[in-house]
């Protein structure tokens, strides 16, 4: 069993009409999916001392994720208002809440160093500690979402081993060039782009790899990209070849696509 630390943002999606709340956020989702894949995961972040924060903590803990370093701050939990229009989710106002001021403490970093791998993303406020973790021998992964050229990603990438981003519109050759440019921003072992129904493309600095999708009924796309990341990283920790890791990511994503909600 591998130990994976997932650090950074969380968010409550609050459906105003139904008065329902669903929990997630990139590192939270990855932590939950890693447990689903049989690994030990920890989530390091911050929630408010409101009912949303209590619900978030309880929901993550119920998924057997270690929340010993999930901080509770006075204030509101990050929240997005969601409405349903003609059957589609429409995201409204977003309040980052206490996550705006979240930064990893030295104690958090020491705890993360007890894991094999640390993963964060564009809105996690963890980018400035990645070099330290990498220097300590921790494998680092970072999800750039669809903005790998964002200034936060540019600041993070010198400390990242495995870079993820999404791009479902570029041609194959355009994407290869983009991957090379992103790799030049740091010294990653691997840069990987997810491409929606076109699968994924990866580059290890020497050669490109491509993998398609695992055909499945699609109920909801929420969390599909995060489950790909979890599947890939768990296979990577098992030292599988890159194409096998890409397949593992696609299979993990197919599970999530088959039900409503992220988890």
Q: How does this model look, in words?
A:
The protein contains eight helices and 13 strands. The strands form two sheets. It has a nine-stranded mixed beta sheet, with helices on both faces. Strands 3-2-6-7 form a four-stranded mixed beta sheet. Helix content is 32%, strand content 27%. The radius of gyration is 17 Å and the shape is globular. By secondary structure, the chain is an alpha/beta fold.
Helical segment tally? 8
Biggest sheet overview: 9 strands, mixed
- Choose one word for the global shape: globular
Give the helix level as a range of percent: 25-40%
What is the H-and-E element order?
Answer: EEEHEHEEEHEHEHEHEEEHH
Strand line-up of the largest beta sheet = 5-4-1-8-9-10-11-12-13
Q: Which structural class is indicated by helix and strand composition?
A: alpha/beta
Radius of gyration: 17 Å
- The average pLDDT is 94
In short:
The chain is of the alpha/beta class. The chain has eight helices and 13 strands. Helices cover 32% and strands 27% of the residues.
Write the layout of secondary structure elements.
Elements: E1 3-7, E2 11-15, E3 20-24, H1 26-36, E4 40-48, H2 51-62, E5 70-73, E6 79-85, E7 88-95, H3 106-112, E8 117-121, H4 130-135, E9 139-143, H5 151-156, E10 162-166, H6 172-183, E11 190-194, E12 200-203, E13 208-211, H7 224-237, H8 242-257
Parallel strand pairs: 1-4, 1-8, 2-6, 4-5, 8-9, 9-10, 10-11
Antiparallel strand pairs: 2-3, 6-7, 11-12, 12-13
Helix pairs in contact: 1-7, 7-8
């Amino acid at each position: 069993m591998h130990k994976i630390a997932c650090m950074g943002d969380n968010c409550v999606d609050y459906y105003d009409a139904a008065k329902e709340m669903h929990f997630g956020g990139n590192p939270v989702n990855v932590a939950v999916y890693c447990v689903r894949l049989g690994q030990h995961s920890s989530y390091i972040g911050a929630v408010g001392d409101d009912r949303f924060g209590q619900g978030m903590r309880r929901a993550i803990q119920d998924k057997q994720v270690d929340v010993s370093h999930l901080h509770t701050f006075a204030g509101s939990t990050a929240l997005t208002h969601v409405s349903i229009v003609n059957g589609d989710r429409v995201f409204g106002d977003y309040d980052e809440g206490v996550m705006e001021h979240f930064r990893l403490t030295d104690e958090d970093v020491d705890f993360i160093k007890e894991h094999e791998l640390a993963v964060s993303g564009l809105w996690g406020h963890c980018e400035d500690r990645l070099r330290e973790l990498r220097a300590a021998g921790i494998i680092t992964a970072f999800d750039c979402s669809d903005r790998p050229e964002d200034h936060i990603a540019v600041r993070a990438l010198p400390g990242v081993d495995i870079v993820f981003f999404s791009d479902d519109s570029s041609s194959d050759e355009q994407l290869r060039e983009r991957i090379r440019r992103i790799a030049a921003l740091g010294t990653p072992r691997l840069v990987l782009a997810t491409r929606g129904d076109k699968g994924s493309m990866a580059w290890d600095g020497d050669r490109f790899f491509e993998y398609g999708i695992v055909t499945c009924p699609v109920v909801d796309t929420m969390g599909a990209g995060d489950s790909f990341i979890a599947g890939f990283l768990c296979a990577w920790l098992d030292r599988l070849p890159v194409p096998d890791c890409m397949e593992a990511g696609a299979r993990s994503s197919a599970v999530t696509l088959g039900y409503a909600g992220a988890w």
